Amino acid sequence: MYVFIFSSELERTLIAVKPDGVQRRLVGQIIQRFEQRGFKLVGLKMVQASHGILSEHYGELRTKPFFQSLLTYMSSGPVVVMVWEGHNVVQASRKMVGQTNPAEAPAGTIRGDFSVHVSRNVVHASDSQEGAQKEIQLWFQGKDLLDWDCCDQIYTIEV
Ligand code: UDP
Q: What are the binding positions for ATP in this chain (predicted)?
């Protein structure tokens, strides 16, 4: 017997293409990796992020020496912010993105394939389910997240 998970019960995560990823025209390739893995896009927008929202987003790093330069970098151009949904999407996304320092990220990960320095690592992915919920609420209003039926979801979310 098969049990199907309704999409509202599935995990969601926040993925952002950072300003270097947008400038280097990597948005399409990054989206493609999440699509081909079998995750579902439920929200997407391009924004010029303010220091206010970035300070909240990176609040836990407030005392780090790189905090101000991180805000300057992240507000230097548009970012593409997305919410992806699917089974185990938080942990799977972190693996797909690779370590914070691209020098340690294996080939085949986004950071390992597209970046070289920790301060320009092209993409953000939430690091926990709790973090994902907070970040999604910070960047999106509920009405901007779409609960839609994906025609192949019996092949990607069945348990
Ligand atoms: N960062 C940096 N220098 C460092 C460590 C981190 O510029 O030494 C930046 C980098 O862009 C990283 C972000 O700060 O992605 C957030 O750091 P975190 O430790 O949360 O890593 P992540 O969750 O992005 O892998």
A: 18, 66, 94, 100, 111, 121
Which contiguous run of DSSP H or E holds residue 84?
Answer: strand 79-85
- Could you give the residue ranges of the DSSP H alpha helices within 44-151? 51-57, 67-74, 89-97, 110-114, 129-139
pTM listed for this prediction: 0.94
Pocket test for ligand 1, best of 20, 60, 91, 121 (most atoms within 8 A of CB): 121
Question: Both tokens of residue 130?
Answer: 């709790």
* Per-residue tokens: 2: 């098969």
Indicate whether residue 70 lines ligand 1 (CB < 6 A).
yes
| Percentage of the chain exceeding pLDDT 70 | 93
Q: Which residues fall in the annotated binding site?
A: 18, 66, 94, 100, 111, 121
Exposed/middle/buried for 67, CB within 10 Å: 0-12, 13-18, 19+?
A: middle
| 85 class by beta-carbon count within 10 Å (0-12 exposed, 13-18 middle, 19+ buried) | buried
Q: Which ipTM score applies to this complex? A: 0.99
